[in-house]
Design brief:
The complex is a heterodimer. Chain A is built from two helices and six strands, in the order βββββαβα. By secondary structure, chain A is α+β, with helices and mostly antiparallel strands. In chain A, a hairpin with a 2-residue loop joins strand 4 and strand 5. In chain B, helix 1 packs parallel to helix 2. The relative contact order of chain B is 0.27. Chain B is α+β, with helices and mostly antiparallel strands. The radius of gyration of chain B is 14 Å and the shape is globular. The chains are: A alpha+beta, B alpha+beta.
């Protein structure tokens, strides 16, 4: 995980209009992982962390801050950790009840991962 | 593409010979400070001003290790590094990511200066 090619922490912002609202994305690239915040207002309402385990094909994921009954952040972190094989922190500050929104948001993140993998 | 709504500032400095990175990110309810000598978030600590602080017997700040090794020194470092940020940021809570090789008092003092240079609040 300790990348010799790691060139220091970098920050990347992007946004997209999804279902009539502007959704903002903020990525902080770290050594062996990244922090991703998603929201429409600059609030930090929860934080999940996920990382791959050699004992399980699905990454481990846990919520370290926020309402534990809201699972969007930790499941998103888990899927991103699986895809990128990195340690992933996710903070998700959008309405969690809206599953069509979260699907589109996840799609947008995947698109950014494909277009700009260097930012993650 | 609209302007980013999250403001952040970062810097890199050598402290006592060790390359140290600081990233400060502003949220309306939190200031997120990453202070690292490993390029990682490391231990996550929340530093929250206590609303009942008019009572002399309770400390004005509470610290909680959210992720990582929960040892007394972590709480000491976190309070030392984050209290002034919270106070300057209108008593907002501070989320602190700490990954330090050296946590001597001189280093902590210098780190506070580096955090100040990344002021987003």
């Amino acid at each position: 995980m300790n990348g010799a090619d790691f060139r220091g922490i970098s920050v990347h912002n992007f946004s997209e209009k999804i279902l009539e609202q502007v959704v903002h994305f903020h990525v902080m690239k770290l050594d062996g992982g990244f922090f991703l915040w998603v929201g429409s207002a600059p609030v930090l309402s929860n934080l999940a962390v996920s990382l791959n385990s050699k004992y399980d094909s699905m990454p481990l994921s846990t919520l370290v801050m926020g309402d534990p009954s809201e699972t969007t952040a930790s499941s998103l972190a888990q899927r991103l950790a699986k895809r990128t094989e990195k340690q992933v922190f996710v903070s998700y500050s959008l309405p969690m009840s809206d599953s069509s929104l979260s699907l589109l948001v996840e799609g947008r993140i995947k698109k950014e991962l494909e277009l700009h993998p260097e930012h993650f | 593409m609209s302007e980013p709504i999250i403001r952040s500032k970062k810097t890199q400095r050598e402290i006592n010979g060790i390359p140290t990175e600081v990233v400060c990110t502003e949220f309306s309810n939190y200031i997120f400070v990453v202070l690292t000598q490993f390029g990682k978030i490391g231990t996550l600590v929340s530093v929250t001003p206590d609303s009942r602080s008019n009572d002399i017997s309770t400390p004005p700040f509470s610290t909680k290790v959210l992720l990582g090794k929960d040892e007394p020194m972590t709480h000491v470092c976190a309070k030392n590094l984050a209290m002034f940020v919270s106070q300057e940021a209108g008593n907002r809570s501070v989320l602190l990511g700490l990954a330090l090789k050296d946590s001597s008092i001189e280093t902590i003092k210098e780190m506070k200066e580096v955090i100040k240079s990344c002021q987003v609040w």
